[in-house]
Amino acid sequence: MKKKTWKSCAAALLAAGLAAGAIAAEHLSAPSTVSAEMAATVSAAPMPLWAKPAKSAKEISAAAAQYARTMGPAALAMAEQWGVKVEEGVLGGVPVFTLTPPKVEKEKADKVVFYIHGGGYILGHGVSGIGEAVRLAGQEHYRVVCVDYRMAPEHPFPAAIDDAFAAYKALIGKTDARNVAVFGTSTGGAMTLILAIQAAREGVPMPAALIAGTPWSDTGRVGDSYETNEGLDNVLVTYDGLLRSAAEAYAAGADLKNPLISPVYASSEDLKRFPPTLLVSGTRDLFLSNTVRMHKRLLMSGAPAELIVYEALSHAQYYLNDAAPETGEHYRLLGQFLERRLLGREGR
Predict the structure, then answer these.
(1) Is the CB of residue 187 less than 8 Å from the CB of residue 242?
(2) Distance CA 45, CA 63 (A)
(3) CB of 82 within 8 A of CB of 135?
(4) pLDDT tens, residue by residue, 7-48
(5) What is the pLDDT of residues 67-114, one digit of tens each?
(6) Rounded to whole angstroms, how far apart are CA atoms 341 and 275?
(7) Is 285:294 a contact under the CB 8 Å cutoff?
(8) With left for phi above 0 and alpha for psi between -120 and 50, is residue 183 left, alpha or beta?
(9) In whole angstroms, what separates CA 244 from the centre of its chain?
(10) Cis preceding-peptide flag for 153 (omega within 30 of 0)
(11) How far is CA 243 from CA 100, 115, 116, 324, in A?
């Protein structure tokens, strides 16, 4: 398919971040092991968006509004580029966007990917949260249902996970859970894991598979890479910036070790019920340690789990540069996982 020129996710994120004010920082150069396109992304100066804490709930809401104004048009432009149809709807009383690719193979016609966007429980309102899912629909030809859940500071814990779980239960009321995969990155990755915990506790049918990209699996400042990758991760930059503000706004005084906030603390009894789970991170990712911790917890609990750690990438950079070959490779790896778990192609 001939691609159109569009404003990349990375460029849109940078534009959103600049509204918070530029920061001066040097950043480690890219290694020779990544493409020239990705090298420009991983060696860029840290994004301002997450670098500084918010002074108030009002400031968080203003940042969220700016993010939506910037990322929403970028996501719709990407949908146009890939020929993906975007339709609004409601599932379980929760707003959703259904993404339909221009072509769906016969064997994928009854399959659905349920997508939960990231953004620290504060960013990603409306269509601004669908960008990552658009390429999965366009490149790998799956129908994707994106949940537009409520967020902090207006709607703290457990509003977000309640909305996602309600929409999921409504979806599997219409589509066999064995034909559904749940997918998300960052906060969406954590919420993907939390959804499975909720399903295990309530006896709700599990999806066929989970994809948890660089999940915010420990919402507290716990884990080695919060220290070792501080400042090296040029997306999130530091836990003590907007990330801490987001954690405080969302938890609103609740225990950060609650597994429904930080899924790395889930019981082995719940984790052993998980379906096959793919976790993804990068060597410069602030969330690397907690992705690794989550992987170990799943394996020790007897759950089938896989882990990909990408060379040199900061938080979620595997989908932020549409021009980088690594981005296409990443989505192909997701596609292979889904082929194995949704389509039964074990040899791929």
Answers:
(1) no
(2) 20
(3) yes
(4) 455 555 545 544 444 343 456 899 999 999 999 999 999 989
(5) 999 999 999 999 999 999 999 999 999 999 999 999 999 999 999 999
(6) 9
(7) no
(8) beta
(9) 18
(10) yes
(11) 32, 22, 18, 27
Q: Kindly report the three-state secondary structure assignment for every residue of the chain.
A: CCCCCCCCHHHHHHHHHHCCCCCCCCCCCCCCCCCHHHHHHHCCCCCCCCCCCCCCHHHHHHHHHHHHHHHHHHHHHHHHHHCCEEEEEEECCEEEEEEECCCCCHHHCCCEEEEECCCCCCCCCHHHHCHHHHHHHHHHCCEEEEECCCCCCCCCCCHHHHHHHHHHHHHHCCCCHHHEEEEEECHHHHHHHHHHHHHHHHCCCCCCEEEEECCCCCCCCCCCHHHHCCCCCCCCCCHHHHHHHHHHHHHCCCCCCCCCCCHHHCCHHHHCCCCCEEEEEECCCCCHHHHHHHHHHHHHCCCCEEEEEECCCCCCCCCCCCCCHHHHHHHHHHHHHHHHHHCCCCCC
Q: Residue 305 phi/psi, 5° resolution?
A: -145, 145
Q: Are 86 and 79 in contact (CB under 8 A)?
A: yes
Q: Please state, in angstroms and rounded to a whole number, the distance separating the CA atoms of residues 322 and 297.
A: 32
Q: CB-based contacts of 178: which residues, under 8 Å, 6+ apart?
A: 205, 208
